[in-house]
Design goal:
The protein is of the alpha/beta class.
């Protein structure tokens, strides 16, 4: 069956192509097209199940009304999946659709995805960038295609970004453990030079140095199998029997750590205090509940989409740099409480 075009719709209804186009693009009121005619066209479109040719529309208008959201792993990360959901809802209200994809934090895969979607005339990109894609982002910006970096930035390029204050939030999280009387506090992270991971480590080190506590850091391989990283964590904890608190730099590392703690029959928080960067819905259900730094998902998604829409609508040029830094929250739960003066499930702004 032949796919209908707006020319076919106009011919069938005896209406000009321009009028059909205005109605389908939501400009009926602006162009003072009668409600009766608008309804007639929309009813016919629904009846014949018409779908516009997005590529043809993009070539004609210069806008595909599509935004690409590229994150590390949208299927296995509470933070990214929640931000994606918020952005999708808000974009839809503003007439845009969102295409999701995962980069696996791989620069080559990310480069290929950018090229793929650029050929499809994507209007703008929201990216949690791996290192090594600076040239691709610069090329997009040079062509006035908006790019908003989320969760982290790339120091060697000037690009708009939205992220939390990783340094301050990590500093205050570590200080919370110190204030609770923990002495041997380890920081468990992945091998990474990404800005958000560097800042979290710097915050931990600053708090430990200020209090005169020993710095104890274990790095894991992001690309290694989970079983290998769990084994690495277990070996580390066995090698440090005086360890009395663990600050996990991400929630998935915390999940690995909780598996190890259970296997070693350690009690939380009596034997070891636990704190995670990035909250999840399960942490408050865990027994005991897990203290976490929570990134404000709604604020992050609101700011990302506002920057994107303002640029797409011509308020800013793609090359204009707007860097939004949002404070995170420390949600204190049972896993880090030794000082009973602090109630569980209290929330502390980190700046």
């Amino acid at each position: 069956m032949k796919k209908l075009s707006i020319r076919d719709i106009g011919k069938e209804l005896g209406v000009s192509i321009t009028t059909v186009s205005f109605i389908l693009n939501g400009k009926a009121k602006e162009k003072r097209i009668s409600e009766a005619l608008t309804k007639r066209v929309l009813d016919f479109v629904e009846k014949v199940n018409y779908t516009p040719n997005v590529m043809a529309q993009a070539l004609r208008t210069g806008k595909s009304k599509l935004i690409c959201l590229m994150v590390e792993d949208i299927s296995n990360n509470f933070f990214f999946s929640q931000v994606a959901r918020q952005i999708e809802e808000k974009a839809h209200i503003n007439g845009y659709r969102v295409i999701f994809c995962s980069t696996d934090n791989d620069k080559n895969k990310t480069r290929e995805l950018i090229k793929l979607f650029r050929d499809r005339l994507i209007d703008g990109y929201i990216i949690t960038p791996p290192e090594g894609i600076e040239k691709q982002i610069t090329n997009l910006l040079d062509d006035n295609i908006p790019v908003i970096l989320a969760d982290r930035n790339l120091p060697d390029i000037q690009c708009s970004s939205v992220m939390v204050d990783n340094y301050e939030s990590s500093f205050h999280a570590t200080q919370h453990l110190i204030d609770q009387g923990f002495e041997q506090i380890a920081y468990l992270a992945i091998e990474s030079t990404q800005t958000q991971m560097r800042d979290r480590q710097r915050g931990y080190e600053a708090a430990m140095n200020r209090s005169g506590k020993p710095i104890l850091i274990k790095k894991l391989d992001y690309y290694a199998p989970q079983s290998e990283n769990v084994a690495q964590l277990k070996s580390f904890m066995l090698a440090h029997p005086t360890l009395d608190a663990a600050f996990f730099a991400t929630n998935y590392i915390c999940n690995w750590g909780l598996e190890v703690i259970r296997s070693l029959n350690l009690r939380i928080p009596q034997d070891i205090g636990v704190l995670s960067y990035d909250d999840t819905s399960l942490f408050k259900l865990y027994n005991p509940s897990i203290t976490a730094v929570a990134q404000p998902i709604q604020q992050i998604s609101d700011n990302i989409l506002k920057l994107m829409l303002d640029t797409l609508n011509g308020k800013f040029r793609a090359q204009d740099v707007h860097q939004v830094v949002i404070p995170a929250q420390l949600i204190v739960r049972e896993s880090s409480i030794r000082n009973t003066l602090i109630p569980k499930d209290s929330t502390i702004l980190t700046q």
